[in-house]
From TrEMBL:
GO MF terms, alphabetically ordered: fatty acyl-CoA hydrolase activity
Residues of the Acyl-CoA thioesterase-like C-terminal domain: 133-253
Pfam family, one: 4HBT_3C
Protein name as it appears in the record: Acyl-CoA thioesterase II
Residue intervals of the Acyl-CoA thioesterase-like N-terminal HotDog domain: 26-94
Family that this chain belongs to: Belongs to the C/M/P thioester hydrolase family.
Gene3D superfamilies registered for this protein in UniProt: Acyl-CoA thioesterase, double hotdog domain
Species in which this protein is naturally found: Nocardia transvalensis
SUPFAM superfamilies, sorted: Thioesterase/thiol ester dehydrase-isomerase
Amino acid sequence: MDVRPCGGGLYHAPAHGPTERNVVEAGQLLGSAVVAAAKEVPGQRVTSASMIFSRVVEHEARYAVEVEALRSGRTFTTAQVRVLQHDQMCCAGMVLLDAGAADLVHSAEPMPHVTPPERLRPLAIPGTEVDGREMRVVDDAYDPDPQRIGPPELYVWTRFRDAPEHDHLHAALLTQSITHWTVAAAMRPHAGFGEAMAHRSISTGITMATITFHDDADVTDWLLYATRATYTGRGHAHSEGRVHTRDGRLAASYTVHAMLRGFRTPGAAASATAL
């Protein structure tokens, strides 16, 4: 996600592969947009980023992130971000940057009471491992068994082994995981449906995600992602989430919109291209 500047508001991410599934995760693309905007406007901090994922981005080919400042000011900058690959636009979004200010007043959503990470086992999903990233799910709720049901929510602890050099890279790595949990949370209440079916017998993919950064966070310390699906139906799922630091501070809030539907024709799972 540490995209490289090429001049004129253009940034490149190198090809990375091969992988089990040749699709770049939506959270990684949004994280790349955070990095590109932060590098393009170095005097301001990314406050919020939103992106629509219209077309698959492949791991095995380089992609570009294009940043255009639509309005630059001493306090705020509004930037348009586009992700391109093979000369086609794949994703489009907006980023808000802020010069910062001291608290006038301060309040935040409290951290939920959940099992601490030391009492949970690591989550290992074949084909989705990220080197240096560890995840632990409260109550083992991210379960491949489609018959196990529960409320439409997931609580996941995440941390990275290595500390990135810049604050915007901490923000990008924090962003990476926000799109992992919506589909699984949405299917939890429904017997016979589960995350293990995604991209195989049901068609799923992230279509839009927005994150707002509140407080600074160190991604090498445990961060709690609290995701709740607020609506599931009509081929869609929507979730709201919070990221809390280990000491209880609210680091970020996010919303995610996903596609969740059956394949149109038998055998379509093998050729599906949804993110």
